[in-house]
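fold-stage: in
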Amino acid sequence: MNPITSFLVFVLLLAGLATGYWVNPYLAFVFFAAGAIVALSLKMANAWQTFVILRMGKLQSVKGAGMFAIIPVIDNVVAVIDGRIQTTAFNAEQALTKDTVPVNVDAIIFWHVHDAEKAALAITNYREAIDRVAQTSLREMIGSSMLAALLSDRKEADEQLKIEIGQKTAPWGISVSSVEIRDVAIPVALQDAMSRQAQAEREKQARVILGSAEAAIAGKFVEAADIYAGHPVALQLRAMNIIYETTKERGATILMPSSMVDSLNPSTATLALALASKGVPDPEFPRAPKVAA
């Protein structure tokens, strides 16, 4: 009973008691009867509610928000439909995918009643029916999907479920707003195998990247060798720079072959190039001592 009806009934009962005590006891029954009629006939629907009313077994009307009255005994409110968006959680346990992998899937559906008359008269319990239809559709979707697609393309699976469930519930006056898969659980053994596979894929990708880097470095070395071949002095300067870099730290001892020390002597290298251009054999130069840094 809504607050307005309760207030009116209370006023009539109070008036009946006062009339019976002060005026006429028999007249009080009139107020009591009026209170009973108001309690049975005056109804109020909230903004989100819809009342489905039958009159002697036939559909009389569908009342929305506001106050309205019915005829007691003859009229009967068979259903009060909530038109707000509602949620229903459902799941599928040990359902086999297309590649025969058992999975447990949890999902949730958002829906609302757009036709109160159909929801009240076309089906016995539309809430229970939605849950059953959602579970059946989920199992059908899992059975027609590969595990990889189910794990990676959830938006596509959500849209597929929304369409399938919506087509089945539309004759009941129910619209499906969206379906969201919350979790896909796979066996522990398969999780380990997938983890090893993913690790192997990452190692493979890392090796490919490392190989590409080595190839790029080798190409740069070839370019540097071509430059040094045409500029011997640049090679000497580079060698001297390397030696300097290695002797920065105190207490380090560097052993170098005498041939490398001779190659770092600019006068020797210049004279050798000049003699080679004239066809004269290389003169004998004394070996430089070993350098310790």
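fold-stage: in (second)
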Amino acid sequence: MQTLSQLSEIIESDNRINRRNFLKSLVLAGGLALVPSLEARAGETLEEQSRSSTDSALEARINSYIKSKRSSGYLGATDETSITVYDIENSRKIVSINEDARRMAASTIKNFVMLAIFDQITSGRINYNRRVKNLLEAMIRHSNNSATNSLINILGGPTNANNIIKSKYSVFNETRIVEYIPRGGRTYKNTTSSHDLNIFYNQLWRNNLPYSSEMKRILSLPKTDRLFDRTCIPRGVSQYTKSGTVYGLVADSGILVTRDVQGRQHPYAITVIIEDKTKSYSKNRSRAGTWTRRRAELIRDISEGVYDFLYRSHIGKPYMCRQHNGRHLGGSQ
């Protein structure tokens, strides 16, 4: 039987290994020892989360909607999308669209900076004092880049921050912290994927990450996003979200929690990323506001469609909002 050390060397030498085989190998070696904070809990395993295929009516509907936006010219030929939706309550992935594609992270990388900070607090290397707390709240709530850079500096720089994630949370295959946020916010080198963000939020909800309750509190602070703000989703829905924007990428990711008539919670994780790498070139930065606004609205449309789909699943009838009268993603579902 291979040792965990041998398995680690194999994984490092062959970056083609996928999450599912990686997790199987860890089980055969004696457990999820390399990712102890992500150990599987009742009814849901990391292996199940790692699957990158689904067969759902919602995924088909979203694909059709995106295709229609391309045909109309609303989305350009160079726009690429990554979308993951996971029904946390039922441990079921219901949308997986290009979820393993490595994308520019923009401000969604701040989820992983926060994770690295709380990991180091747990190990006793950082004190959770008022300064660190204020920096975390500014980074997540206001997406403050100076606060982010201060936290990365506390971690010892981008390389050290990245090493914490790679060594302790190796299921995040596409996430890389390689730079401070540059002046002007034009960060193009840090990366992640909708799959990685889905795993982050899923495990956060299940309290499998260090200081999960505190991270959820910070992520729930009032702020602007594209999954909930300016959508038809009702005000009573709880949100734990972090958006990201740089010219060339618009993204949002998080957990929304619906409640049925009995007051029972129904949480789901959703990530939508729209990327056009050609827009990161300085010569292509004209009309940045229009480009960003259109893609933000598309994310809102998709979020509304996901909410409607899950509302039907839990409540048994369409979500009849005033704006759309039960018709989301371009039509009834």
